[in-house]
Specification:
The chain is of the alpha+beta class. The chain is built from nine helices and 20 strands. The strands form six sheets. Strands 6-7-12-10-11 form a five-stranded antiparallel β-sheet. The protein is globular and about 60 Å long. It binds flavin-adenine dinucleotide (FAD).
Length: 353
């Protein structure tokens, strides 16, 4: 039997650790910052080998990266960056109505969405074109256009860096919230997510009530809803509104949409009648952070090479050669301006290092 040479080299060779390497190509803000080391892994075995080397070489800290589309580096990373490339999409179970799909943490998220759409499996079509990898999805319970990962999440497998064991997490274990999970809080930095299993629907239930999806479908002349049509509408909206990181460095929404007490919302509304609020199940009201920033006159504002995006004020961008500290300074200016005008404190969605 002929076995490609790469088969062995990919899965058995100890991955190389590159020392003092620029992280610029490894994250979408495109900031030139050095890491003490960087290595890529494609299997649990390779990860374990790398962790042993990292211990022997006394790397001070570790950071797992997927596509680097939700990080901002404000200083050199004084540790080992582990780029997760674990591949593979498999159906692990199915019945008449549902299919359980397991994807390696290094699978590109949008590729997984397209795989589901092409197989007629519903549930993640509204999450098309979110950059990054599957393994980072549960970190912040990725969401867009009225759908969050938690609505299709079944379980994930993760490797505990200290105990050196693999652990399964159910939906309840993940404590998902709005752009939030246990991995951003109590278990921060403790686990490497290896794979994620989603429960998708063979008879899709479409969710087109949010944002501009319906209008976009009309503009596209769509008569009958299909997974392709909905994902195409989402892709078209995203491409028209959000900067492409390949052209203008960014990490998507820099801030979370804040939630405030209904009484706070009422008093903001008294002063600013155009304010839009989305009532939440817990009685709080969610505000659009982009709108708040825009009202402060900051849309398109620049601080050196860092800027607030001209079309979507929620996104901070790299106009060419900015630094992480400059972006951070801009984010603090934005937070201060919104707080002073509305009394609302914005919180970063991006992971700052
Ligand atoms: C243009 C643009 C649009 C975006 N739109 C959206 C959107 O609509 N909705 C949304 O929710 N997000 C959005 N994002 C943010 C981002 O794409 C998501 O958060 C995505 O899930 C990040 O994936 P990543 O692989 O790039 O993660 P990274 O940036 O590599 O990592 C993010 C965090 O997760 C950790 N991490 C990554 N992989 C693992 C792993 N395997 N195990 C443990 N920890 C891990 C990292 O250490 C880091 O703390 C957008 C970003 C951009 C640039």
């Amino acid at each position: 039997m002929w076995i490609p040479y790469n088969y062995f080299t990919m899965h058995t060779l100890h991955p190389i650790i590159h020392k003092h390497i620029s992280l610029k190509p490894y994250h979408t803000f495109g900031i030139n910052v050095l890491a003490a080391g960087l290595a890529q892994f494609e299997s649990l075995g390779q990860l374990q080998a790398l962790l042993a080397t990292a211990e022997a070489q006394q790397f001070k800290k570790l950071l797992v990266l997927g596509g680097g589309s939700n990080v901002l580096f404000t200083q050199p990373f004084d540790g080992l960056v582990l780029k997760n490339n674990i591949d593979g999409i498999t159906v692990v179970a199915e019945d008449d109505e549902q299919v359980w799909v397991k994807a390696g943490a290094g699978v590109n998220w949008h590729a997984l969405v397209m795989h589901a759409v092409n197989h007629g499996w519903g549930g993640i079509e509204n999450l098309a074109l979110i950059p990054g990898c599957v393994g980072a999805g549960p970190m912040q319970n990725i969401g867009a256009y009225g759908v969050e990962l938690q609505s299709v999440f079944h379980q994930l497998e993760a490797y505990h860096l200290h105990d050196k064991t693999c652990v399964s997490f159910s939906l309840a274990d993940c404590s998902f919230g709005y752009r939030d999970s246990v991995f951003k809080r109590a278990l921060k930095g403790q686990f490497v997510i290896l794979s994620v299993t989603l429960r998708l629907q063979k008879q899709p239930k479409f969710n087109v009530g949010y944002g501009a999806i319906r209008t976009q479908l009309e503009e596209m002349g769509v008569q009958e809803l299909t997974l392709q049509a909905v994902s195409n509408a989402v892709i078209a909206i995203r491409q028209s509104k959000l900067p492409d990181p390949a052209v203008l460095g960014n990490a998507g929404s820099f801030f979370k949409n804040p939630t405030v007490d209904a009484s706070v919302f009422a008093s903001i509304q008294q002063q600013f009648s155009a304010v839009v609020g989305y009532p939440q199940a817990n009685g709080m009201v969610k505000l659009a952070a982009g709108w708040l920033i825009e009202q402060c006159g900051l849309k398109g504002f620049r601080l050196g090479q860092a800027g607030v995006h001209g079309k979507q004020a929620l996104v901070l961008v790299n106009h060419g050669n900015t630094t992480g500290t400059e972006v951070l300074a801009l984010s603090k200016m934005v937070i201060a301006a919104v707080q002073s005008k509305f009394g609302v404190v914005l919180e970063a969605e991006v992971n700052v290092y």
